Amino acid sequence: MQQALLKLSALVLTAAAATAQGTVYTQSNDAAGNAVLTFQRTGVTLSPAGSVSTGGLGAGSGLGSQGSVTLTRDARFLLVVNAGSNDVSVFERTPAGLVLVDREPSRGMRPTSVSERLGRVYVLNAGTNPNVAGFLLTMAGDLVPDAAAPAPLANGSAPARVAIGPGGAQVFVTERATNLIDVFAIQPGGALGAPAQIASAGVTPFGFEFGRNDTLIVSEAAGGAAGASTVSSYRIGIGALTPITAALPTNQSAACWVVLARQQRYAYTTNAASGTLTGYLVTPGAGALTRLDASGATGNLGAGANPLDAVTTVDGKYLFVLSPATNEIAAFFVRADGTLEKLPSQFGLPSTAYGLAAR
C-alpha cells in the first residue's frame, strides 16, 4: 500500500510539473556591465532564455542584501539595482521578453535593494552615507524621484533590505551591524520621516518577508557564527513590532535570506555558510514559528554551495535558490507538509550573480 501511495504521489507531481510554467530572473552583477539573466521554467526545468543589459554596472561581488531584483506587484515591470554605477534599471515584461524602459540614478551610493507597491518605489542605498530614496513609477515605466530628500541611515549600519509593508503605509529596513529594524511612516507625497528603531530579537537581522495578518518574519545571521543563526516573527503595529517567536534557532550558519511558500504557511531561510535551507511552519493567524526539522536542514545543497537569494513561484509550490559559488540556480518542490524535494538545477551562472525574482 505504501509503495502504491508513493507511486501515486510521484505521478501527481509529474503531472503538475508538466503544466507548470513561468520565468525566473537574476542579475549578472558584472562590474564591467550588468545584465538580467532570464530563465524559462517549463515543468521542473529551467532553460536559459537570454540576457538583457541593464545599461549599468554591477558590483562584481556580493551585495549583502535581499531584493536586488524585484518584480512590481502587478508583475508588469522588473526593477534591478546597479550597485556599481549607482542607478536602477526598469524593464517592461513583454511577450517578446524584457525591454529596458528607464534607468535612473539611485540618489545614493551602492543601491542593493528595491521595493515597489502601487507605483511607489523605495531604493536602499547601502554605501557611503546610506539612505532610503523614494520614487514614483509611472504607467510607462519611468522612475521619477520624489521631491522629498532621501531618508538617511547611520554610517556603518550595513542595511540589508528595504520593503514596503502591508497596507503600503510603512517602509521597513534591516540593519545588520546595529541589530536594529527601522520602521518608517510614509508621509503624504511619499517622504519618509525619522524611523522608529526597534531592537532585533536576534543578532544580525538580514532578510525578511511579510506574512499573513500583519506579520513580519526576519532571518538573523548571528554574524556568521557556526550554528548560531535564528529566525524571528513579529506582529506589525504603527511604528512598532511585537515579537511573536523570538530568535528561534536554525541550528545552521549564516541564515541571510528568507522566503515564504504554500500560501505563506511555510518559511525558509537559506543558510549561506552551511549550504542548507531551514524550514519553519508558520501558524496560521498567529504567526508563530515551528522548525520543521530538528537539525534545521530541511534542504541541503552541499558544503560550499553558499546559497544566497531565494524565491518562490506565485503558487508557492516551487522554490528556487541562487548559489553562485556553484554557478547554479537550485530548485525544490515544496510538498504540502513543507518538506522539500530536490529538483534539477540550472548551471552555468556567473559567480557574481545576485538576486532572484520569479513569475
Give structural notes:
The chain is mainly β and 359 residues long. It has a domain at 200-359: YVTN repeat-like/Quinoprotein amine dehydrogenase (Methylamine Dehydrogenase, Chain H), CATH 2.130.10.10. The protein is built from 1 helix and 30 strands. Strands 8, 9, 10, 11 and 12 form a 5-stranded antiparallel β-sheet that branches. Strands 21, 22, 23, 24 and 25 form a 5-stranded antiparallel β-sheet that branches. Strands 3-2-1-30 form a 4-stranded antiparallel β-sheet. A hairpin with a 7-residue loop joins strand 1 and strand 2. The longest helix has 18 residues, at 2-19. The relative contact order is 0.13. The model is unreliable at 1-19 (pLDDT under 50).
Summarize the structure.
The protein is mainly β and 359 residues long. Helix content is 5%, strand content 51%. It has a domain at 200-359: Methylamine Dehydrogenase, Chain H.
